[in-house]
Amino acid sequence: MPYLFDHLDAVRQVLTLFPFGLMTDVDGTISEIVSCPEEARVSPVCRQQLAILTKRLELVAAISGRPALAAREMIGVDGMVYIGNHGLEQWHDGVLQFVEGVKEYTTKVTAALDELMGSLNVEGISFENKGVALSVHYRRSPDRKSARNCILEKIAASFIARDFSIQEGKMVVELRPSVEVNKATAVEALVKRYNLRGGIYVGDDISDVDAFRAIHQEIFKGLAVGVISEETPQQLEKEADFTLNGVGDMERFLTWLSGVAPSLTRPHP
């Protein structure tokens, strides 16, 4: 796929559209992927540049698989919008809001967690209770293929898990509420709410493919940027307009963007 730094003119062109929004995933995009999710840290350079961009763009948003409050704590930039659990919840202006019908899943998540912890005796796996969703990570398993198969088998046999939609990401299996919500619906809602005419979405995993497709709308000019690594799903590369090579490239891009945004995103008099 075309390398973003070879096509900055295309980015400049989109930046002339006002209002303009920047939307980004978190893990693998502005934070390196690590074996234990709790140990992940946002790049200080990315944090600094995002803080600058909140003062120069109509919208700067993080759309993460983590809970919205966890993403907010991890990034720590005031003025950003934080979308959590792949669009199921949002933190903005000091208020946490859930999509209708998902808060009831908190008790179901607890029940599913108790059941799976009792039945999944697999070395190296870990569980992440995300409030209205549940993730089972197997990155630290010595046999990842076997661990994944075992997780999927136990979930398929679980009566409780039948109430959830099962999704996969980089070395993780997730149980999410069975509602028609994902990163695409999150992007669409932000575009509508902020009346955006142009924007960029940056992501690295299979859940970001939905967002890539949503950002290519007829009434809105958007660019989909994939942050590439050895684990990048082929489908994401196929859907991306441009690519960056890892979090280091994202640091460079945000620094460039914060430098050019002030003179390009103001409406014409």
What can you see in these coordinates?
With 269 residues, the chain is an alpha/beta fold. The protein folds into 2 domains: 17-99 and 181-263, HAD superfamily/HAD-like (Rossmann fold), CATH 3.40.50; 105-177, Trehalose-6-phosphate phosphatase related protein, domain 2 (Alpha-Beta Plaits). Helices cover 37% and strands 22% of the residues. The protein has 9 helices and 12 strands. The chain has helices at 8-15, 44-53, 68-75, 105-119, 144-157, 183-193, 207-214, 234-239, 246-264, and strands at residues 20-24, 59-63, 81-84, 89-92, 95-98, 126-129, 134-137, 164-169, 172-177, 198-203, 221-227, 242-244. An 8-stranded mixed beta sheet has the order 5-4-3-2-1-10-11-12, with helices on both faces. A 4-stranded antiparallel beta sheet has the order 6-7-9-8, covered by helices on one side. α2 runs parallel beside α9 and α6 (183-193) packs parallel to α7 (207-214). The longest helix is centred in the last third of the chain and has 19 residues, at 246-264. It starts with 7 loop residues before the first helix and ends in a 5-residue tail after the last helix.
The sequence of SSEs as H and E is HEHEHEEEHEEHEEHEHEHEH
What does the overall shape look like?
A: globular
Poorly predicted runs of 5 or more residues: none
Question: Mind describing the biggest β-sheet?
Answer: 8 strands, mixed
Number of helices: 9
Indicate the proportion of strand residues.
15-25%
Give the spatial strand order of the biggest sheet: 5-4-3-2-1-10-11-12
Assigned CATH superfamily of the largest domain: HAD superfamily/HAD-like
Mean pLDDT: 94
How large is the radius of gyration? 19 Å
Number of domains: 2
User: CATH architecture of the largest domain, please?
Assistant: 3-Layer(aba) Sandwich
Distance between the termini: 37 Å
The chain-level structural class is alpha/beta
> What is the CATH first-level class name of the largest domain?
Alpha Beta
